[in-house]
Write a sequence for this structure.
């Protein structure tokens, strides 16, 4: 009979290759849609303000927002070798650039409608864009609070702050991508191109988010990886015998910890203790 450790290792390899495959497809689709919409903006002419609305919002959501979320994905092709701190910095930088681009794009559209005497936020595209912007603002505020969870932990538990940051960020991204898809109209694109972009946008949204719920769901019950995704103080063990952590429900204690490799002491973040067996 095959040892349990070997079966688990084989499953890990299969999952890893699948994650890598889907991540590569996702990057290709993100790149294609971003290039397509950028080229479309170029053909319209950047001398028109409305072109900048299309370009900035498209690039802001489709590229920078998507890539900022992917930095948190362990199987992401261009960040998996980076440290947790570097991933967080990249996440913040990409998120900031995307938010500025989106905000400027929306402000341009508001100015154009105001100048033309037209009503604001009447279409589904405009309403979803506004709602997404609101959730982006909430996500930024939660993200700032998440950076200082140690200082405010007496007021609110860190897990709740980070949960709100994850959820508001995901909602902002999904609604923003929905807003983009709603603007793919025949007046801008042919029917074939419209259907293609809607399909690609839907796929990239799903593939960008597919790893996040699974990776972050454990945050609310048990940290998945004490080195890469630390939230609570707990023991790090060198064998898969389980982890005992602070503030965990008793029924969560028997769960096996996902990390099953040796962790150098210098890699452990604050709040960890190494238990050598």
């Amino acid at each position: 009979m095959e040892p349990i450790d070997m079966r688990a290792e084989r499953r890990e390899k299969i999952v890893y290759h699948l994650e890598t495959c889907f991540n590569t497809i996702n990057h290709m689709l993100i790149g294609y849609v971003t290039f397509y919409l950028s080229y479309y903006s170029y053909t319209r002419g950047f001398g028109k303000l409305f072109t900048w609305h299309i370009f900035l919002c498209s690039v802001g959501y489709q590229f920078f927002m998507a890539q900022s979320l992917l930095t948190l994905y362990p199987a992401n092709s261009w960040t998996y070798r980076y440290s947790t701190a570097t991933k967080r910095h990249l996440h913040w930088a990409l998120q900031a650039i995307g938010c500025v681009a989106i905000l400027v794009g929306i402000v341009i559209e508001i100015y154009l409608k105001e100048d033309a005497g037209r009503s604001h936020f009447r279409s589904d595209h405009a309403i979803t864009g506004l709602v997404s912007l609101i959730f982006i603002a909430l996500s930024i505020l939660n993200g700032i609070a998440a950076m200082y969870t140690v200082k405010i932990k007496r007021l609110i538990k860190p897990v709740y702050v980070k949960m709100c940051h994850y959820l508001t960020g995901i909602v902002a991204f999904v609604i923003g991508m929905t807003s983009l898809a709603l603007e793919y109209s025949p007046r801008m694109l042919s029917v074939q191109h419209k259907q293609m972009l809607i399909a690609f946008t839907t796929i990239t949204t799903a593939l960008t988010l597919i790893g996040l719920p699974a990776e972050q769901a454990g945050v609310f019950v048990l940290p998945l990886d004490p080195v890469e995704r630390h939230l609570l103080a707990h023991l790090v063990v060198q064998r898969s015998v389980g982890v005992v952590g602070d503030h965990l429900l008793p029924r969560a204690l028997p769960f096996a910890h996902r990390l099953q490799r040796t962790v150098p002491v210098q890699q452990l973040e604050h709040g960890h203790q190494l238990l050598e067996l």
Q: What stands out?
A: Residues 4-44 form the longest helix (41 residues). The chain has one domain: 3-212. Residues 52 and 125 are 16 Å apart (CA to CA).
